[in-house]
Amino acid sequence: MWWFTRPTALVVSSRGAIGTLHAGVRATTAGRAPCGHQAGLVTDVTTSNIVANSVLPALRIPLTLTTSDGLRLVGELAMPESNTPLASIICVHPLPTHGGMMDSHVLRKMAWRLPALADVVVLRFNTRGTQSAAGQSEGEFDSGRGEGLDLLAAIGEIEARSLPAPWLVGWSFGTDVILRHGNVDPVRGAILLSPPLRFATDADLAGWSDSGRALTCVVPEFDDYLKPDAARARFSVISQAEVIAVAGAKHLWVGETNVRAAMDEIVKRVAPAAWPLPHRWGGPMERWSDL
Q1: What is the CA radius of gyration of the chain?
Q2: What are residue 153's phi and psi, to 5 degrees?
Q3: Which structural domain range is residue 160 located in?
């Protein structure tokens, strides 16, 4: 992997990252704790490794999204503290009946890191009926139907705030919600982590093909539901779809190596100027504890 082999000089970027210097980016300052929580501070803020519980600086705004059918959803917007955002990501979480929520670990780590490392806005929310530490969204689980209205409310929030270049990132169940309901303007494209194709239909896939909207499927080698070869076959009906296999990964993306691989594939498409992401940080950093 590149961070072991790439022969680059160790520099502190103006983002605070340790790695390749990106020009034209202003320094950031200390961030707030994630929505609904209080993180513990790290004393070493000079050349720290970014680890599983690292929380980098961002402006974190608790949200209430209102759907077109009148439900109020719990969410959070994480934005670069001072830099102009390059792009925006709307996250759709895994299956809530099996523990999925806005704090599912890959999505939470995106919100903790990407505003600082890539100048990307990250919007997370609980779909209808879903609960996390930030609170519970109104309504009930609707098997990917009503959740489409939840996604549209999140897209509308990005539009209302005039935030740039909206992309969708779904994980597992969230990929089905995106395939069914996310093929709309002004969405630039979507990145699907561990897509099971449980609720999405052939007609949904055909719609993405017709739109030409960018679609990338990031599929674990040992996925429980749809492995890379099967994913290539199923998504072959979408001419513009990419299927990226991640060696050694499983459906839940456990382990920092796998999380980094997933985030790199996301950033490569959403904010390519910030790719690859650094693994060290030279500014203020907090460490989150669930204890």
Answers
A1: 18
A2: -65, -40
A3: 58-273
Model confidence over 259-289: pLDDT tens digits?
Answer: 999 999 999 999 999 999 999 999 999 999 8
CA dist., res. 273 & res. 264, Å (int): 12
* Lookup: tokens for 169: 């990132």
pLDDT at 85: 98
Residue 2 forms part of a structural domain = no
Q: How far apart are CA 190 and CA 81, in angstroms?
A: 25
pLDDT of residue 16: 59
Residues 6 or more apart whose CB falls under 8 angstroms from that of 33 comprise 39, 55, 60, 286, 288
Instruction: Identify the H or E element spanning 159.
Output: helix 147-160
Strand pairing class (131-132; 241-246): unpaired
Which of 144, 126, 146 is CA-nearest to residue 136?
126
For residue 17, tell me if it sits in a domain: no
